[in-house]
Amino acid sequence: MTRKLYSLCGEDGIRHYSPHVWKIIMALEHKGLEYSLTPVSFEDISEIEDGSYSSVPVLRDGETVLGESYDIARYLDETYPEAPALFDGKGAMALTRFVESYCKTVLHPSLATIAVMDMHNLMSPDDQVYFRTARERRFGMSLEEMAKGADRERAALPDKLAPIRDLLTHQAWVSGATPAYADYTLFGTLQWCNVCSPNTLFTKDDTVSSWFDRCLDLYDGVGRNPARSS
Amino acid sequence: MTRKLYSLCGEDGIRHYSPHVWKIIMALEHKGLEYSLTPVSFEDISEIEDGSYSSVPVLRDGETVLGESYDIARYLDETYPEAPALFDGKGAMALTRFVESYCKTVLHPSLATIAVMDMHNLMSPDDQVYFRTARERRFGMSLEEMAKGADRERAALPDKLAPIRDLLTHQAWVSGATPAYADYTLFGTLQWCNVCSPNTLFTKDDTVSSWFDRCLDLYDGVGRNPARSS
Fold first, then answer.
1. B57: preceding bond cis by omega (within 30 degrees)
2. Which residue ranges traverse the bilayer (chains A, B) (predicted)?
3. CB distance A163–B101 less than 8 Å?
4. I need a labelling partner for B90 at 20 to 30 A (CA). Which of A40, B73, B82, B215 fits?
5. Which CATH superfamily is domain A3-79 in?
6. Contacts across the A-B interface (CB distance below 8 Å)
7. Residue A227: which pLDDT band, with cuts at 50, 70 and 90?
8. Among A230, A6, A215, A195, which residue's Cα sits nearest to residue A114?
């Protein structure tokens, strides 16, 4: 296997929880490309390949190594044009960026708060120290203080998902009639919280929840098995 | 001229302020298609063409008459494929819907509050009665009560525009390297408030404000002249 995806894992070395890695897991499955997952801890990231990476995913594909989920998705479409497209045209490439910007600016802050303690608790002791130090510096408060906002953020989430809920009244998938990278962008973002804090994301019967369930079913239910060793 | 766009106007019969009409004004300009604007009041809408419409825009194009801005944009691309495309591919058609859903669920409620009294004040007396009755029923409060939320909504707007601001760090236009219908969808939404309550939308030096200015410059500055008689 020459295709290797470096993926942030919990202390067990098999629980994959990075939102951006999940985008690429789904992208590789979508394109039907084989790959193996190489678990890394926060500490390991600086030692991936040539040591120039500060985040995951990183993909090695034969002699090519690259990072940044969106760039990897673009690379996969360019390199494997015969496999199903992740972007249905150039316009979709640009507009998928808007889904990414929405996930980053609207959803990430809420999900980071909702999942903060569960995420911390699944890490190795060394990653816990790294994570605590980095987050507490960034947010100017302890993780425990941050976690006090979890109920508030969980209550705000349905409103924050309103644009997706409205979109899904028009079409079955974010990308249109069939799922593509815009779906995986949103899915990865939510899957992060779903892996760390299972069953806390949605209230029942939400349109977005049923879309998320359909995403979990894709590709032999790969999203339903976040704990895997390869 | 066989191409006629019905457009909601103020009492002066020349101030065009409907967000959805603005989307189609920009779409027609983008495609280089000639058109005339037919001003209508709220009262007039039920008498447009065969009387089956309850909102604007309505476009008559030769023998074809249709409503709903997104459907009109799709129609224009299908009917005039040789003119510049409003959607760069099928994927862009689907993802432009997400921009529309974001405008509808995130921005509209804020803008409706910010502009409510100015919008009311530019209408004819009959439209003022219609508008007041409809809005007060929908929101369960007087227009004046609603307007008290304007400062709060204006303060919330920069945060609500965060996904657009983030997107514009990657590309010059919402649609990518050049403007297209996703831009006009957002532009129309903001132009509504800009026409009703000029110079209140943005704080200075905002990335989104500079994008909006570039939209106003397009097509001989059509957006800078919201008061026009044809």
1. yes
2. none
3. yes
4. B215
5. Glutaredoxin (3.40.30.10)
6. 120
7. confident
8. A195
Residues A131-138: contacts with CB within 8 Å, 24+ apart?
Answer: A131/A42
Task: Please report the pLDDT score of residue A209 as a whole number.
Answer: 95
pLDDT band at B1; cut points 50, 70, 90: low
Tens of pLDDT, residues B46-94: 999 999 999 999 999 999 999 999 999 999 999 999 999 999 999 999 9
Tell me where in chain B the CATH 3.40.30.10 domain(s) lie: 3-79
Query: Is the per-residue pLDDT at B2 higher than 70?
Result: yes
Q: Is the pLDDT at B225 greater than 90, yes or no? A: no
Burial track B134-150 (b if 16+ CB lie within 10 A, e otherwise): ebeeebeeebeebbebb
Residue whose C-alpha is closest to residue B22's, from B166, B182, B137, B189:
B189
pLDDT digits (tens, 9 = 90+) for A63-75: 999 999 999 999 9
Interface test with B, best of A68, A69, A98 (most B CBs within 10 A): A98
Residue whose entry in the numeric block shows the structure tokens 């209408």: B123
pLDDT score at A1: 59
Q: Do B166 and A95 lie within an 8 Å CB cutoff?
A: no
More confident residue, B230 or A47: A47
Of B89, B101, B182, the CB nearest to A88: B89
Tokens representing A26 are 């789904």
Cite the residue boundaries of each domain of chain B with CATH code 1.20.1050.10: 90-221
Q: Which residues is A40 bridged to in the sheet? A: A8
Determine the residue type at B87: F
The answer to whether A27 and A58 are in contact (CB under 8 A) is no
User: Which numeric CATH code is attached to A90-221?
Assistant: 1.20.1050.10
B181 contacts on A by Cβ (under 8 Å): none
Residue A142 neighbours by CB under 8 Å, 6+ apart: A136
Q: Is B198 helix (H, G, I), strand (E, B) or coil?
A: coil
Distance from CA of A125 to the nearest CA of B (A): 34
pLDDT tens-digit readout, B141-159: 999 999 999 999 999 999 9
